[in-house]
Amino acid sequence: MKYSNVDTESKLSARGCFMWEKRPSSTSHLGDRFLPKLLIVWTYPATYFIRTVRALSTRREVFVYFSAGLNPDYELSLSELSGIATVVPSKGDLWYLIRTARFMEVLICGWSHPEALLVALYFRFRARVVLYLDTNLRDSYRQRIRRGLFRLVGKTFFEYVTFPGARSRRFAQAIGYSEAKSISGALFIDRMDLQARHSTTTPFIFLGRDTHEKGIEVLLEAYALYRQSVSAPRELLICAKQQSERPAARGVVWKGYVPSEHVPGMLAGGYALVLPSRFEPWGAACLEAAAAGLPLLLSTEVGAAEDLLCGNGFLFQPTVSDLLAALHRSHLLSASEWTALSDNSLAVAEKFSGGPWLDRIVTRDSNQGNQ
User: What does the DSSP 8-state code read for residue 35?
Assistant: First the structure.
């Protein structure tokens, strides 16, 4: 039996689901039919994920379930899904939706997450199931065991794998996916209307989360040394929700969470993006900064460095001394040198268009899907 949007929404509403405001009816149909449905099982609503949902919502009615759960830290991010997706708040509601709605495609993040694998198993012969990989290949005993198990069992649940860049491509190959079953370009961006311009007053920018993996402590320590060692130091703008109390540091401005629609303007007012991550499978903030014309200062642990750094910034080890050297090099750039790096960033970002990725993720035959 095929359920319409109204059928599905009324059933979910009866179970207590909260439904974001849907798109206007004039854009919710293809001819006389409702848009086919697409289910996304993800971890948490990062900025790049919201961009992905927005793009997919132009071709599908999107339902989203977050395996990490819904907590107050995600409230602002979730509000950005209003009008473009339906958020399913609980595991029970997810499985009710799976049993009652008809999906064309299922996009899953979590190659070793038990719940994600169960969803993929259910849809194995009912929909087009795509695995999103944001993991880098590591030579650890634990990952080798998990990769072996996935090749034996989990790989059969997913028809295709998609990933953002070269490092995750190598991981996809390690778990048995050929080029024919691989879809690159999972992170993309539209050309930004606002672009950075050289100025003596613009700040270094960090865009991400305040976590150990992001290297915030390394950044703060290196920046303090940078301020002491140069004349007319630039400020450091940290665009992240502060997770722990820290003493005020001179020149450091904590801006907090920046909604996705404000990110282009914020980046256009910057001097360079600094990402000192200890662990970063890719790093969507790097692509956003490149699209705004910012030079990139990236640690060797940032996956995007392999795809985006091309005469447009500096690479450093995620240590205080290495980051300090990168800050000094960036600080000493002349206006013409900075402009050359900025132009190279813009040229790199232009290669990351979302159209080709959407064409491969979204199937054309709307008569398929689980019944």
Answer: P
List pLDDT tens digits, range 148-164.
Answer: 999 999 999 999 999 99
Alpha helix segments (H runs only) across the chain = 5-14, 47-56, 75-79, 91-100, 114-122, 141-152, 166-174, 216-229, 263-268, 284-291, 305-308, 320-331, 335-349, 355-361
Nearest to 237 by CA among 265, 212, 261, 272: 272
Position 192 pLDDT exceeds 90 = no
pLDDT digits (tens, 9 = 90+) for 30-39: 333 467 999 9
- Band (pLDDT 50/70/90 cuts) for residue 244 is confident
SS (H, E, C) 213-248: CCCHHHHHHHHHHHHHHCCCCCCEEEECCCCCCCCC
What's residue 171's pLDDT? 94
Largest CA distance in the chain: 71
In a 13 Å sphere around the CA of 6, the CA atoms on its Cβ side amount to 3
Report whether 132 contacts 98 (CB < 8 A).
Answer: no
Residues 322-356: pLDDT tens digits?
A: 999 999 999 999 999 999 999 999 999 998 988 88
Cα end-to-end distance, the chain, whole Å:
6
| Phi and psi angles of residue 95, each rounded to the nearest 5 degrees, phi first | -75, -30
